[in-house]
Amino acid sequence: MKDKSVVFCYFMTYLWLGVMAALLIFAPRVLRAYMQFRALPWEVYQVILIDFYLCCIPAAVALLCLLRILGNIRQQQMFDRVNEKLLRVVSWCSLAVAILTLAGGFWYFPLFFITAAMLFIFLIVRVVCTLLAAGAALEEESSLTI
């Protein structure tokens, strides 16, 4: 069962990498169609597009970190300091996206909702990271016990 979950997570991570790669190419076209549908000013188009491209950097880093964590899980290295560090990177990436969308939210209000969601994700990942750090410390302590 656990292996199915890891395979599913691999699939979803690669799917999101693919979606992000496609959007890096087609984002201007998709956004232009959205702008015509909503009749928003050109400045909003620029803000959303710049915000999107800037947010792709931490998003890609987070997805690559998740792939490394999944690889470690497959190798039965769950409570590991490396996974803890990778999760910390993921949390900081979510905070970076929150900051970027916060800045863009002053020009396009719905970006504030993304900011709130990313701050919530930051909190969840930090809590899981703290839990993982405690688990890693416990595992290190138990390996020293005879």
Task: Itemize the secondary structure elements and their pairings.
Layout: H1 2-38, H2 42-74, H3 81-105, H4 111-144
Helix pairs in contact: 1-2, 2-3, 3-4
Give a description of the structure.
- Helix 1 (2-38) packs antiparallel against helix 2, helix 2 packs antiparallel against helix 3 and helix 3 (81-105) packs antiparallel against helix 4 (111-144).
- This protein has one domain.
- The longest helix is centred in the first third of the chain and has 37 residues, at 2-38.
- The model has no long low-confidence stretch (mean pLDDT 92).
- It is 88% helix and 0% strand.
- The chain is mainly α and 146 residues long.
**Strand percentage, roughly?**
under 5%
Structural class: mainly alpha
Distance between the amino and carboxyl termini: 32 Å
Count of alpha and pi helical runs: 4
What best-fitting shape do the alpha-carbon axes yield? elongated
**Helix proportion:** over 70%
Profile the largest sheet: none
In terms of quaternary structure, what is this?
A: single chain
What are the low-pLDDT stretches, counting only 5+ consecutive residues below 50? none
Key phrases:
elongated, 0% strand, mainly alpha, 4 helices, 146 residues, single chain, 88% helix
Could you give a quick summary of the protein structure above?
Helices cover 88% and strands 0% of the residues. It has helices spanning 2-38, 42-74, 81-105, 111-144.
